[in-house]
Amino acid sequence: MVALLVVLTFLFAVILDHMLNRQPVMLVEEHRREEIGSRPRLVPAVVAGFEVPDNLRYHPGHTWAVAESPDRVRIGVDDFAAKIAGKVTRIDIPERGQWIRQGQKIIAMHRDGRELELVSPIEGTVIDINEEAIRNPELAHEDPYGEGWLIAVNAPDAKTNFRNLLGGSVARKWMDDAAARLRNFAPTPVGALAQDGGMAFDDLVKALPKNEWERVEKEFFLI
Question: Among the residues of the chain, which ranges form H helices?
């Protein structure tokens, strides 16, 4: 009888311990699911009609960079450059294995006999090329931060390079200033771009006077 009582007491203790130890875990999981479900999605900021995603860093020459690992960095052109260039017909970029420097001209976007050159935001060796964007340059115009990315580099000094780039509120202020200066170059429909907070007029190269093109390159793309 005593032995049976001991066994029953032991079983009751095991069951009680199991129940007490399970409940907190369930509560933690439920809390974690609520936390994940309520986490805000990253939405690109729009400044004066141009998208400026907060997760990227920007070169003042209107190219962007994002770290995919400590040494691997993806590069592309920003929305400002994409909208000015418009529907380009060809994009020239460095070959795999080529070493590029921060601030070096590495991208050439061709359109209607004009060439828009842009500089690298990062120093390193080209290790990957977005072949789809090279075959279909319209990707860089339609989706410059996504499918229209251009190259990836192995950047051993990426941390130092990123200190020279713009991000957050600084990048937004810089883009706002660039849009304001652009209005001084463009005729009236473009001069009034994004006044209502919408997207900027697309394909700006068509609206810019030909004799202003060299000035635009120097003013905005540091060429």
Answer: 2-37, 79-85, 131-135, 138-142, 158-163, 168-182, 188-191, 213-221
Burial class (CB in 10 A: 0-12, 13-18, 19+), 39: exposed
Dihedral of the CA atoms 194, 200, 206, 208 (nearest 10)?
50
Q: Which CATH code of 3.30.1330.10, 2.130.10.10, 2.60.120.590, 2.40.50.100 fits the domain covering 45-221?
A: 2.40.50.100
In the chain, which residues have pLDDT < 50?
1-42, 189-192, 195-197
Ramachandran bin of 162, using left for φ above 0, alpha for ψ from -120 to 50, beta for the remaining angles: alpha
- What pTM, to 2 d.p., does this model score? 0.76
Helix (H) or strand (E) holding 118: strand 114-119
Q: What is the pLDDT of residue 81?
A: 95
